Structure to design on (244 residues):
């Protein structure tokens, strides 16, 4: 009976670690894009960002990632397509 | 109820200190990026500018962070921001009845809607009819003023 709880915990922790990996990759990529001229600086900044925003405060890191994706990923450009359906007639 | 204790707030100060450090790292990375884009041909200048930027960030962090944030939001993301506000925020506020867009743009849109209704043979509401009459009077006044100005100019 408790097997299902084990399964839920297993998949939840798997997805949580995958999510943390995505966050770490995002911060590493950000550091590489902005500091490509210096590999040492890239690794230092990436290390600091990953330590604080993935290990220590993953929720803050996730919020930053989601906000960045919303603003730069172009999802907000879909708003003008969706909003007319909610317009007051 | 427990009495308020500063010790319950102190962990928050530790968190704020960590976030302060992370924000400084972000800001320093952006400054380095822009310095490199501007001074990549002169390594000496790039080094000196880096030291000056680091000094400002360490000893005057608040104005430095504020200026970099303003620069990133308005200069780097300026067009992006303008598009988001005009086509994202304004339509969103219009749903809740708040009209912030330039009045001429809103008037043009309203005129287009009324003309569409007239073309489709639909009846206009009372408010729309009154608005249309007011707009036509305004246009007539404007045309009269322009004509008078033209006459004065040519005489």
């Amino acid at each position: 009976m408790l097997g299902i709880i084990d399964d839920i915990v297993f998949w939840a922790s798997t997805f949580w670690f995958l999510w943390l990996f995505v966050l770490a990759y995002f911060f590493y990529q950000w550091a590489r894009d902005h500091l490509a001229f210096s590999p040492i600086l890239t690794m230092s900044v990436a290390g600091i960002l990953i330590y604080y925003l993935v290990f220590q405060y993953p929720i803050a890191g996730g919020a930053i990632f989601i906000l960045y994706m919303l603003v730069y990923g172009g999802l907000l450009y879909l708003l003008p397509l969706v909003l007319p359906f909610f317009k007051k007639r | 109820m427990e009495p308020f204790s500063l010790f319950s707030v102190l962990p928050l100060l530790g968190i704020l200190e960590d976030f302060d450090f992370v924000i400084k790292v972000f800001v320093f990375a952006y400054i380095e990026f822009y310095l490199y884009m501007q001074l990549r041909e002169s390594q000496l200048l790039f080094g000196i500018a880096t030291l000056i930027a680091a000094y400002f960030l360490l000893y005057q962090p608040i104005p430095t962070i504020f200026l970099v944030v303003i620069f990133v939001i308005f200069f780097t993301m300026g067009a992006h921001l303008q598009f988001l506000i005009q086509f994202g925020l304004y339509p969103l506020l219009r749903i809740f009845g708040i009209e912030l867009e330039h009045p001429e743009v809103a008037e043009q849109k309203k005129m287009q809607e009324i003309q569409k209704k007239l073309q489709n043979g639909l009846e206009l509401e009372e408010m729309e009819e009154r608005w249309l009459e007011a707009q036509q009077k305004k246009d007539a006044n404007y045309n009269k003023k322009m004509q008078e100005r033209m006459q004065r100019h040519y005489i």
Notes: Chain A has one domain: 3-86. The two ends of chain A are 53 Å apart (CA to CA).
